[in-house]
Structures are given as C-alpha cells and as structure tokens.
C-alpha cells in the first residue's frame, strides 16, 4: 500500500500556512514546506517566512536549512523532502506538503527525474555569463539546433529556461525535451490527497498589497541591508527573490521607496498568477475557495471531502 501524503498548494497569500496547521492538529500531521525561498536562513521578512507563532507547535520541516551562499536546486529539495516525508510517515504521523513552489511539490509527489549533475552550477554559471551579452533569440536558435522539439515547450524570449535547457543538454547529452515528456506523466507514488487554496482575484491582490506593506513596516529594508553587509547581494540579485531586488535598487538610489514598494506588489501579483496557472494544470487538485472562509472552516471542508480516508487524530 502506498504511503499517505496530503498536499496543500496554491498562490501566495491564500492562507496555506493557517489551513495546513489546522489540518495537522486534527490529523496528527507534520508539515513539509515546499517553498523555494523559505529554505534559506536570514531571508525572513521578504519571504513571509512561517513564524513560530504561526506554526502553533506543529513541527515544520525544510525551513531555514541552508545559507544564501550555498547552492540549492529542485533536485536537492527533492532528496531532502523525500527523506522528511518518509521519516514522518515512519513515526506514524501524516506528512503534509505545503507551499506555492509547484516544481518542488511535483518533484516529491511524482518522483520527477532530474538531470544528473543538477546539484552543481558550474555549467549554469558559464552559460549565464555568456547569456549576459547574448540576445535570447541567438541562444534560442542554438537550443533548437541541439533539441528541435524544444520549440514546443520553451518560449523564444524566456532566457532563463533557454539557459536551463542548454545546461541540461550539456550535462546529460540528452535533449531537454526528453525530460519534459517524462514530466507529463502525473501518476503519484503516494496515496495522495491534493488540495489547492484560491481567493477571489481582487481580494488576493488586496492581501498581497497588505502583506508587502507589512513587510516594509516590519523591517524589510533593514533585513536587506543586513544581507548585503553579510556578503549576499549577488545571491539576492541573481535569484527570483521578489522584494529583495527592488529594495536593493532603492538602497542604491535607482528608485524611490514608493516605486520599489509598488514594483514588489506588482511582481508578487504576477507571481501569484503564474502559480495559479501551474496548479490549475493539475487535475488532481481539489480547490477550496478561501474568499469568505476561515482557516478552520477550510480545514473542515477538506476533512469532509476526505470522508475519513485519512485517519483522524485520537
């Protein structure tokens, strides 16, 4: 029999933490974070990192596990998350995978195959250095000569994915599209219960705006200055770290604080839209509308949907 695994997914600011904590309390569960930025220590305010108060005594795994200077990837996450899920289940607890990083979630539930060498970054750094002085169209033409089928899965202006595809080809000697075909299979190795949280668009945007304003009030600028002083500026500007890049530009005098805040809000809204696009593509997700629902009510709705499939605590 496959091990049980619950997933709570969805865009930023939809209430995943609160709902998952309610479920963990009721189902004797522990939470495995699936957030590509909360793995990093020191990045607290800008990542809206789950606090001890929010955890409410429920064990959380894969938060604050590496320094910003350490290399990390989806393949590295997969290894750690797999180990955490197995260890939690071995103790008779329910693993609950929670987050908004779709690739991290799929890496666990579908046992995605990552190219050999994904844990290293030398090839990527060399390609990124070259890409800095090269138009995306030139790199795209190079990619299509090596992997014509990539035309169907990568946009010609998506430089980040083009670089990633070239890296995979160089590391493995196989077309990038081969791995993409394998990823189209959605057959989990777990007894899976997968739920997604959604919020009406205008309310989600309002929540995002409030969250960003709170980050600034809570000391985001001081956090960024501290990270720069610790030598992490290059990391912050090279990653998809919304909030940090914009504050760095403000600190350097390249934009006003108001413009930085507005840009953070806009990019967070765009990110939430991309997250929804990713999760909507997975037919295994049962959606829970959080627009007028508390975390407790959402947890009860999820439990009702499960119908006793996952054993209740006590």
UniProtKB/TrEMBL annotation:
It comes from the Bacteria. One of its GO terms (molecular function) is ATP binding. ATP binds at residues 10-17. Substrate binds at residues 12-17. GO terms for biological process: tRNA modification. It is an enzyme of class 2 (transferase). The keyword tRNA processing applies. Pfam families: IPPT. Its EC number is 2.5.1.75. HAMAP family: IPP_trans (MF_00185). Catalyzes the transfer of a dimethylallyl group onto the adenine at position 37 in tRNAs that read codons beginning with uridine, leading to the formation of N6-(dimethylallyl)adenosine (i(6)A). This is tRNA dimethylallyltransferase. It comes from Candidatus Aquicultor primus.
